[in-house]
Amino acid sequence: MGFKLIRREYAEQYSENVIITFVITLLGIRLFLELTGYPQIAPGNLHFAHALWGGLFLLIASLIVLIYRNQSLLTLSAILTGVGWAFFIDEVGKFITADSDYFFRPAAPIIYLTFLCLWFIAARVRELGGRSPNAQLYHILARFEEVIEASIDPDDLMRMRQRLQQLSQERQDGITDELAQALLHFVEREDIKTREAQPSSLARWVLRLRRATDQFLLSERAIRYVFPVVLVLYALLLVVSVVAQLLPFALPDLKTTLHSGLDVSPFSSSANTVLFVAMNVLWAFVAVWFLLASRHLLSQRAQGWRMAHRALTVSIVAADLLFFYFSQFSAAFRTVVDVALLGWVNYHHQHTQLLEVGDGYEGPPVKSPRGRSE
To answer: Which of 4, 250, 266, 353 is deepest in the core (most CB within 10 A)?
Structure first.
């Protein structure tokens, strides 16, 4: 039998934890250094580059999952991985220049490229699923740690029994279904201890926040009016920005005023000019896409969500990458807005799919792909 990769249960959550902690840590480092004047935090002529701290965090994250098998430590490992990678990659300018230039201008887009790579990996992990019988058995066996430690939640135990019952009824290779039957016989014992189903105050707060988010993002008013209006306003801002950025090419006297916020001048070389124009052309196309998407959404057509998804993806992958080169880390705000809007689109798509498969979603009315409330 050939070697097969088995996706870990909740792998998408761990990937997202890496991305979130990476972004927060990186922006925190840059903000701290900017506010404190880039201090040297070391005695005498010593300098402890924060890439060293990044390596330490990455080492700890690796050792945690190699030494201990507690499922709860995987979240800690993911967090430390994001923190460590941020500390390490923040100094990429020093690694790729002969004079160890921390402020090397292409460093910002290179760092942003690593964010895009992590983002694509997380999206790919989400698509892989891991619903094969073998993968499900691996996931169930991993949860037996909680059964042994008497720390499994009663609801999780019930779901485990349901999954094992389904697997034991399916005809697989004679081993998978027999193993599922044996595990099912064990978890059906009445003397299995579970932890009290009393959520912590933090868990209750997170649950209330999620319900409030559902009530707003998935409400009929937000889907039919708020999101399209946001797209229109964003498109108008992009149009104004494009006009302001390109106007100095026709009126050179305005360069000092309209390009004062740029770290790299588009007039410094012909290559920078081409990249700068390409960035603004991309934003112009994105603005048009936003306006078309909002029109479809106001008409309750599902095509509007698909167009918004494409426009935001192009903005994040291409336009924002170029913007990081010209504006360095001040471009992070626009990227955060793009990612937040794309998250809204994906959130709507996820709950629409739940409605179609009848997954028992209990929340505010969500527009189906055909435009009517479910």
So the answer is: 266
